[in-house]
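Subject: for your reference before the review

Hello V.,

The reviewers asked for a structural picture of the protein, and I figured it would be easier to keep everything in one thread rather than splitting it across files. Below is the amino acid sequence we used in the manuscript, unchanged from the supplementary table.
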Amino acid sequence: MSTENKKVISVAAVGMDQQGRQLLMMVFSGPAKGHYQLIDAVEKADMVIFDRDHWQADKLWQHYREQHPHLPTIIFSLTPLESHDIVVQKPLSVANLLNALKKAEQMPTTTSISTVAAEKNKVRLATDIAVETREEAFHEFCGHAPDISPDNSVENHRLFYQPEKYLQGCLQQQLLLAKKKTDINGILFTNLSEPLILLPKLNKVCYGAGFNDSKLHTMASLPMQCHPSRIEHFGQTQTELYLKQHRLIESSLELLLWKMSLWTARGRLPQDTDLNSPIVLTRWPNFTRLVVTPYALQIAALWMEKPLSLLATGELLQIYQRYVFSFYSAAHSIGLASAENGNNHYNNRHNNQPAQHQKRGLLRRLLAHITG
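And here is what came back from the structure prediction:
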């Protein structure tokens, strides 16, 4: 498909629910700058986005490829998949979606029959796995705890965790110390399997090549003690010298804290978080760089429009509480979200705007935030 043609690219979504379609429309209108449009008719589309995690994905895929064997296709999937089509693994990020769309524009519009048959079998097998592991895939970031009643004090205790007992808390403690002591330019952790040095003034982190997401995930999940004797504070000269002597990978400190808090919290909240206080979001998260958890865009838009309690947010959006808690924990870890002081109780939410009116305006607010 040629990119020289300046026409708007028509994209059809197969197997995607209304929530997913709304997210595509937001990206197309915002970060994609109107270069793509979402349409219903597959036969009129220039490319297709197929959600492999639909409960009838096997049948949908077979019918789709029988009718349109040559159409460039992007597959959204919770689980990894080897495919001749373009696969974007969930949780989705805006950057990954935009890259996939650009690749789809370059795809040829002819595909051999043998390739189509092979893809049928691959998706059939992968769909069986996805049905069994849907919740387990989201468990990495959001856990799988059921919702609790706001009045059940016995259940409430399992909603919380203590960040200070994990690596997340240790990182945050050291960053707070660096704010107080302005001569700290680098914070080196010497008790980990690979070098890790925080650069708070640059909002960056550097670490050894062996520090992949799998290892960080494991470290984030295990309780640990933060021993001051295993942490070194560097001034500017020491920091520059250390970075020259070691070949390290540079990344965003904000991204590290965001992922670390998701892995540690797993759908829980920092200890002493008030379930009934309205949540304030100070700015729109940079979702092009951060992990986008389920319904993160909707939650962010809601809180940017008006502070709302954690429990009220879940009920208004009709989503699992753990999705709300995960997003809050991550946003709170980088200073984007906090609970207001006050007595705005969960049961008083009906005194606000009617829920249906708020839900109708949610897409408009999301579009406004994404397009800036």
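For the response letter, the relevant points are probably these. The chain has three domains: 9-142, 153-159+271-371, 163-259. Residues 153-159+271-371 form one domain.

Happy to draft the paragraph if you're swamped.

O.
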